[in-house]
Amino acid sequence: GAVVSQHPSRVICKSGTSVKIECRSLDFQATTMFWYRQFPKQSLMLMATSNEGSKATYEQGVEKDKFLINHASLTLSTLTVTSAHPEDSSFYICSARDQQGAGTEAFFGQGTRLTVV
Amino acid sequence: GEDVEQSLFLSVREGDSSVINCTYTDSSSTYLYWYKQEPGAGLQLLTYIFSNMDMKQDQRLTVLLNKKDKHLSLRIADTQTGDSAIYFCAGTLEGYQKVTFGTGTKLQVIP
Prior knowledge:
The complex is a heterodimer of chains A (about 120) and B (about 110). Chain A is mostly beta strands and about 120 residues long. Helix content of chain A is about 0%, strand content about 50%. Chain A is built from no helices and 11 strands. In chain A, a hairpin with an 8-residue loop joins strand 9 and strand 10 (about 105-110). Chain B is an all-beta fold and about 110 residues long. Chain B contains no helices and 11 strands. In chain B, the strands form 2 sheets. In chain B, strands 2, 4, 5, 9, 10 and 11 form a 6-stranded mixed beta sheet that branches. In chain B, a hairpin with a 5-residue loop joins strand 4 (about 30-35) and strand 5. The interface of A and B includes residues 42, 43, 109, 110 and 113 of A.
């Protein structure tokens, strides 16, 4: 089945630095990908919708200047956490759906655990 | 928008059946999913059901959908310790790819 690959799986960074997370659809094209954030013991919250070739759509309360999203190709979206702070420490997950396929499954990456120290 | 709610915790004994419940608000939700998340891992799709179905069975998993009450349940037969995880129900609308997740139910299986 379709696979979404997310990298890195874990990252530790210092406060004030930026971290880039990649999300790739391996065997299908995704004009739209989604970025979620999961706080400990909580559900997944949609952060933004990443649109290939255009600006991302951010959910209310998500700072677009802090969480930069770039969807440069039909198989790659990146999320950059800029000037990271400890409160940005979280589990970030991307997802995509194969628009050409007949299935309805939303495929998820493995997630990235970000720890800001 | 869609709201999806679940109970937070469920504890069962190994070999018993587990039933995880979910309610949603948007009656036009077309696809309803159950995902499993093991500690520190991403999401694994367990099963999904179309809104025009009442029930779907896949090996040990049975999904029941009551559209009138906007209630979705996941039954795991013969629950094993490897089933211990957080289970999320989720919904999406036709043609609208955003998936809205429930709060997640932590399933603890006691040996």
